[in-house]
Amino acid sequence: xxxxxxxxxxxxxxxxxxxxxxxxxxxxxxxxxxxxxxxxxxxxxxxxxxxxxxxxxxxxxxxxxxxxxxxxxxxxxxxxxxxxxxxxxxxxxxxxxxxxxxxxxxxxxxxxxxxxxxxxxxxxxxxxxxxxxxxxxxxxxxxxxxxxxxxxxxxxxxxxxxxxxxxxxxxxxxxxxxxxxxxxxxxxxxxxxxxxxxxxxxxxxxxxxxxxxxxxxxxxxxxxxxxxxxxxxxxxxxxxxxxxxxxxxxxxxxxxxxxxxxxxxxxxxxxxxxxxxxxxxxxxxxxxxxxxxxxxxxxxxxxxxxxxxxxxxxxxxxxxxxxxxxxxxxxxx
Amino acid sequence: xxxxxxxxxxxxxxxxxxxxxxxxxxxxxxxxxxxxxxxxxxxxxxxxxxxxxxxxxxxxxxxxxxxxxxxxxxxxxxxxxxxxxxxxxxxxxxxxxxxxxxxxxxxxxxxxxxxxxxxxxxxxxxxxxxxxxxxxxxxxxxxxxxxxxxxxxxxxxxxxxxxxxxxxxxxxxxxxxxxxxxxxxxxxxxxxxxxxxxxxxxxxxxxxxxxxxxxxxxxxxxxxxxxxxxxxxxxxxxxxxxxxxxxxxxxxxxxxxxxxxxxxxxxxxxxxxxxxxxxxxxxxxxxxxxxxxxxxxxxxxxxxxxxxxxxxxxxxxxxxxxxxxxxxxx
Lengths: 333, 330
Ligand SMILES: Nc1ncnc2c1ncn2[C@@H]1O[C@H](COP(=O)(O)OP(=O)(O)OP(=O)(O)O)[C@@H](O)[C@H]1O
Ligand SMILES: Nc1ncnc2c1ncn2[C@@H]1O[C@H](COP(=O)(O)OP(=O)(O)OP(=O)(O)O)[C@@H](O)[C@H]1O
Ligand SMILES: [Mg+2]
Ligand SMILES: [Mg+2]
Hints:
The complex is a heterodimer of chains A (333) and B (330). Chain A has helices spanning 63-70, 93-102, 120-130, 138-144, 161-173, 191-208, 219-225, 243-248, 253-261, and strands spanning 2-3, 15-28, 35-48, 52-57, 78-83, 86-87, 103-106, 179-183, 211-216, 228-233, 236-242, 309-313, 316-319. Chain A is an alpha/beta fold and 333 residues long.
């Protein structure tokens, strides 16, 4: 049994990564009938030193696209990403190689992430050699991720899903990263081993001071693992808050919907707070709030203008016109 | 033939994927029954044999043999049906939503054509008008806009494709629908919407559902009875209320329940079950769960425990009478 780490110790520290107005687009269709998809639409946030920041949102809301922009698998269309103060959004060549080593990605599927012909030992040793990392050895990394040494000469197909994901994490750690972007690292694993992978990541964070962007569509694991949680919908960042606060006082109607749909032992099953189900419009021609078609609180301006960002408190922000949802009684906003 | 009253009655089923030298028992002495109109959840980790059971019920096992036991659907022994009856039996009596089915919709057929083909395959004389009205009805049931009837799979979101697959499964009014992980790739909001829909249609059309998933928290919301499978054996069958109220459970079930995080509590904790499930060619002796069980004793390594009724649940655990005390000691 492991408990949620102390929350809120990181706020005064300097951010490692500062993302401003990040936009990722994909041109689709033929050149003469170009349509532009915007999975990441003017998103801003920051990641503090060894913070775990959760990113939740509906399928197709742009979570993986943010991950791939941060790790520079994709080049952003516009915006800035400051890593220790340097804008890395458009760097190239050796600068980019150096950056990529510092920001590692762990993917959802531990089955396809490993080379099927290389032993566990080889998979972990290669990145160590690559950067001449003398701080760790294969042994120490395998130990850090909780894999027994008898497993080191095995091939990926001889390992269980949970063991594979540990190898993937060990391999990422070998590069001495400052940030690990974990894109649904446990969703393909059995429920009974999920917690052990999360607590491993938590452990590494404390011992080696790695920060995490933890992507999931499972609010419960986001709360368990992260200091803060950001919520995305249709390419927009719609809410951000400290984890416990976001669960206790969700402001955005989509966050409320997500919370109502998340299974919980104590909650009685009730109707979902939405007008109906539809998928968000990600085309560049879309106007207003992407959640408007499903929103119980929709009003005229929601379909015309982009909702303004409001910091309800210094750590809790939301993008929504329905400010009756978050106005404090008696206060002026 | 005597009607047993159950739509589905699986008794003492054992399925082997191995050969003479190395048996690979994917199901071992599995018994399970489903009543008309009932919603039964079958929960287990990857490789526990859930899909194997579904295939065995439809007589679709590939490379596996039923070495013991029997399966009856509406009182008929499935393995005694001749090929004519078997065709009618599949889809008209029992239909199935296959694991990953939403990714295997035919890319060159529209939604409507999928439904037409399914119905025509069983009734060649059906008129176009009848087909059209049944299609409308089905799309309405799964809450897909009629304008989508002309769309191809790639024009639909994952949630919509999944609804189409469900519409196909209920197209011929079966008595039992088997759903193998129908919502796994979808996010919670979409999952919930689909589950709610299935529940409503099921009540209206009065078919029974065998719902297969690895996610216990999902069936808690909708099933009446839940069976938990581990390494090819059912280790517990319990009414769903007992899962929610936290009465006595098998140590494995308890582990699965603890793995569901409590979202609203101030102190969030998730626990896991150490170790991982065995391979079916190298099953541990006695109770297959014993290497991972906190309460295993010598007797658990000896002979496999049988299901016994205890406080309303069927539980297969050698230490059953003592469990209550063992749990309270923690
Ligand atoms: N390389 C690409 N080319 C074109 N479209 C893309 C590409 N990558 C992503 N998209 C589109 O961007 C949108 C957002 O996708 P993304 O994978 O970021 O979502 P997600 O939030 O990670 O979803 P999920 O929870 O299903 O993984 C989708 O509509 C997707 O089809
Ligand atoms: N055609 C086959 N030949 C040999 N072994 C098989 C075959 N199909 C399944 N198995 C084995 O039988 C066991 C049960 O598999 P099954 O697919 O029924 O599990 P499951 O519970 O559906 O798992 P999942 O949750 O991953 O779908 C596994 O050990 C699997 O490797
Ligand atoms: Mg993704
Ligand atoms: Mg299966």
